[in-house]
Amino acid sequence: MSFDxxxxxxxxxxxxxxxxxxxxxxxxESDNFEDDFFKDEDFEFEDHTGEDSESEGYRVKRIxxxxxxxxxxxxxxxxxxxxxxxxxxxxFGYRYIKNKYFTETEIAEEERIDIPSSLELTQDIDIVFxxxxxxxxxxxxxxxxxxxxxxxxxxxxxxxxxxxxxxxIPSIGTGLVGESVEGGMDLLSLTLERNLGIEMEVDYYILMxxxxxxxxxxxxNLELDGEITVKNYDDDSTFKLEPGSNLIDGSEAxxxxxxxxxxxxxxxxxxxxxxxxxxxxxxxKIAGESDEELSANLTxxxxxxxxxxxxxxxxKIFSTFSKIGSGKSNVYPLNVDDHExxxxxxxxxVGDISGLPEIFGMExxxxxxxxxxxxxxxxxxxNGEGTPGLAAEVxxxxxxxxxxxxxxxxxxxxxxxxxxxNYDITEIKVYSDQAYVIDAANDIKNILGAGNITVSEGEGxxxxxxxxxxxxxxTGETASEDxxxxxxxxxxxxxxGEGTAKLASTVQGILEDHFNAEEETLKVVETKDAGxxxxxxxxxxxxxxxxxxxxxxxQIMDRLGVGIIKYSDDNIDNVDISIILxxxxxxx
Length: 588
Fold this sequence. Notes:
Blueprint: H1 3-35, H2 53-101, E1 125-132, E2 143-150, E3 155-161, E4 165-169, E5 173-176, H3 185-195, E6 204-209, H4 210-216, E7 220-224, E8 228-232, E9 237-241, E10 244-248, H5 250-259, H6 275-287, H7 291-301, E11 305-307, H8 311-322, E12 329-333, E13 336-340, E14 346-350, H9 356-359, E15 377-383, H10 390-399, E16 410-417, E17 427-430, H11 435-448, E18 452-455, E19 465-469, E20 490-496, H12 503-515, E21 522-529, E22 539-542, H13 547-560, E23 564-567, E24 577-581, H14 583-586
Parallel strand pairs: 1-6, 3-12, 4-14, 15-16, 15-19, 17-18, 20-21, 20-24, 22-23
Antiparallel strand pairs: 1-2, 2-3, 4-5, 6-11, 7-10, 8-9, 13-14, 17-19, 22-24
Helix pairs in contact: 4-5, 6-8, 7-8
């Protein structure tokens, strides 16, 4: 082989080795690059040119690919993190909003009240229901209902007590019964026990936040016999309820109770029994259609009730009360006398409660021993009618009144004329908040057989009571002597014992048109509601044994076409005849 041929062969081999070495070096560099995050080549200038420019373009491409992969990975991780945060927020946010603003319809199984094997109430109980607004810590009570349940007859008797009735509150003194709840439901229970004059011991109580209870139950169905327009005390508007079933919310329920609480002058105090309709509707809604629904509803509203009943006892009471038929659930208003404060607000004192034992099915009343306060009341008597000597005559009449011990009931400080003689109605103004003074005012009204009682504020006035005599009081005639039959005019009053609106005033017109057509034979002194609306038979009660009165009583019964004549000496209204209209009159 020649030298030239050897050199050529060497050159070719050397060239092959360089190519192989270059390829090997590139592969190694590539492998090392994958192991290192940054390489020297990453910092080479983009416009650099040289013998390895082709390899440099390949490396740049690989770098960009890796950067894109890293961005994709970081973005994916970020998106997943955001999705997790949003999911957690949705779950907990939904629960928060639902619990705070929406009625919970599903109760967790572990939160439900255990249902006993029997929900039948097998014992007689006395229970007080008080209905308030939204705040149970400082309750604004607008309904107080005392109920007695008789288990053998499955019978419920309820008494509605006006919340603005003055009672003797233990350890406090005279106050409104509704305000006694501020001292706790135990104090309300004790107040009723000591003031109603019947043998009773309140076993249980329930104070309800009516607004939230009704709303939590998605409203209640209020059943009405006729149309009622109720005042809305939130904005001084009114809302109308139709005959039949009315779905009402918490605000309407509270306003309904308040409207029939006795604070409205134009609403008869006997209508306070309509408050029981709200309590009945709540009871029916809580009971539901099954024991499970009853348990769920009680769980739902348990935070809006204050009671000394266990959950099992509540289950039994609401279950049992919801199944009592209308014929075995009777409701009565407490017999009260109304008064008016200088600000025009109405309040009440307890009237004749001798009939309560009969209402609650007791043979005899066994009242708690009450200490009679024998305090002499200072009086001033003014003549506002004009008859000479009228004020002096009444003053002497009242001076003769005394307690069983012989102590004088009244001390007359002053006798004189009023600022004018234009008083048609006798005014009995009370300037004391003591219960015995208010009792004295009622006693004076009964003695005079006339007058309206008002409670006034008067600093510096020495008298407890000021009497201004009007033309409704007759000269020389006391309440016990003032028989209308003596001058040929028979006095009667008419009581609505059935419940139809304006029934007593309608009958007044009928009787006056008939008997006074030619000359005045009778005078209707007063029309009002009876103690309850459960009279099935009309009663014509005669308080005068004279022939004229007895004859007129028979004529009244003939004119009405129904009724029975009775005789009584308990003439608290100072009339000759008292008519109590029953359902037999409206059913004719």
